[in-house]
From TrEMBL:
It comes from the Bacteria. The keyword Endoplasmic reticulum does not apply. Keywords: Membrane, Transmembrane, Transmembrane helix. This is Stage V sporulation protein AE. Pfam families: SpoVAC_SpoVAEB. InterPro entries: SpoVA (IPR005562). The chain crosses the membrane at residues 31-48, 83-108.
Length: 119
């Protein structure tokens, strides 16, 4: 049942994002930023943690999870180091995921030889 909940939750997040792209003039990049910010805000308010425990990967894999992960890192570092923690926390918490994304996307670009889109 956990797989079904995760699949449906992640699918609904993606479906809502797709609806935003098709029904508004928002660009995909802005929708992605909106999802990251929404994840951070939900973490700040205290809603994200129970939602994450219920939906598991369905909540943690999309960009909402990335925003919440940034929020948790910032909160932890602010508690430890004060004001400077605002700048350190997000990097500390997300460094491994961001590094992996950069490395694997670079490898994919070498293997697939992407071409620039012409206008």
């Amino acid at each position: 049942m956990q797989y079904v909940i995760a699949f449906v939750t992640g699918g609904m997040i993606c479906a809502l994002s797709q609806i935003l792209m098709e029904k508004t003039k928002m660009l995909p990049g802005r929708i992605m930023v909106l999802l990251v910010c929404l994840g951070a805000i939900l973490g700040f308010v205290g809603i994200y943690e129970p939602f994450s425990k219920w939906a598991q990967a369905g909540a943690n894999v999309p960009l909402l999870g990335f925003g919440n992960n940034l929020w948790k890192g910032v909160k932890e570092m602010v508690d430890k180091k004060g004001f400077i923690g605002i700048f350190l926390g997000g990097f500390k918490n997300c460094a491994a995921g961001l590094s992996a994304a950069l490395v694997f996307s670079y490898i994919a670009s070498l293997l697939c030889q992407p071409k620039m889109k012409k206008h």
